[in-house]
Design brief:
The protein is an all-alpha fold. Helices cover about 80% and strands about 0% of the residues. Helix 1 packs across helix 5 and helix 7 packs antiparallel against helix 12. The longest helix is centred in the middle third of the chain and has 34 residues. The radius of gyration is 21 Å and the shape is globular. The N terminus and C terminus are likely disordered.
Length: about 250
């Protein structure tokens, strides 16, 4: 018993970042903060926000990116509303860049927390199927990550967590996340940039804009392009097999 005692504090330190993130998510809903992350809140306070941002530009940008980091790291709902707000307050270009930076940092935080707390333990206990999945994903990690970021097939928070259990390198994860979320982010930042006119007209923003063929088409094309290295490796590997056998 005495020999095992030191393991307890070490285990607590390992799980502490993940516990903090989980506590933040619980506190968010316990305090009812989700009621404020809405387009109605932005509509009702847009004039006051616009004036304050114009007078405190640097501070506003810092608060926005910090809030976005927390939103992604704690897996809080409302990222789409936040992205629209960024475009509304800072314009398409700056709002999009602040959002991409905040989302990438926040996603990296939860990735590191999950990898530290659970990644090594899961891989140590992994069966043959999970190891095979990890090897296959690891060979083309950047391509797969880029596709998952470009095309939101799975929820954003799930894509933040899964790579931590599949042995994806930190640099690969960060770069693929930063590049992959750019197209969709700038589409919604652009939509947010025009929210003033939408609110003045008494209408709701068309959040289905990203599914318009002229927008989703290029994004899907980028996703297919990202898979080219995967396909090439598969065919190149098969073509080498007869030579190796010979």
């Amino acid at each position: 018993m005495t020999e095992n005692a030191p393991a307890s504090p070490a285990a607590f330190r390992r799980f502490l970042p993940l516990l903090v993130l989980a506590a933040g998510l619980v506190a968010f809903f316990a305090l009812g903060l989700e009621r404020y992350v809405t387009l109605d809140t932005l509509r009702d306070n847009r004039q006051a926000l616009s004036v304050w941002v114009a007078e405190n530009w640097a501070l506003a940008a810092f608060i926005y990116i910090t809030a976005y980091i927390a939103m992604v790291a704690f897996s809080l709902p409302g990222a789409l509303v936040a992205t629209l707000t960024g475009g509304f307050l800072f314009g398409t270009l700056l709002g999009g860049l602040l959002t991409v930076a905040g989302a990438t940092i926040g996603a990296t935080a939860i990735f590191l927390a999950a990898r530290t707390a659970l990644g090594d333990a899961l891989r140590a206990r992994a069966g043959p199927k999970l190891r095979k999945l990890e090897e296959g994903f690891g060979e083309n990690a950047f391509s797969y990550m880029l596709v998952l970021r470009l095309v939101p097939i799975f929820p954003f928070f799930l894509v933040n967590l899964a790579p931590a259990f599949l042995g994806v390198r930190l640099g690969t994860y960060v770069l693929a996340t930063f590049i992959g979320i750019m197209p969709g982010t700038f589409v919604f930042a652009s939509l947010g940039n025009g929210l003033g006119a939408v609110f003045d007209a008494g209408r709701e923003p068309d959040l289905g804009l990203i599914f318009e063929p002229q927008i989703i088409g290029p994004i899907l094309a980028l996703a297919l392009l990202a898979l080219v290295p995967v396909v090439y490796r598969r065919f190149a590997g098969k073509s080498r097999l007869p030579d190796e056998a010979a």
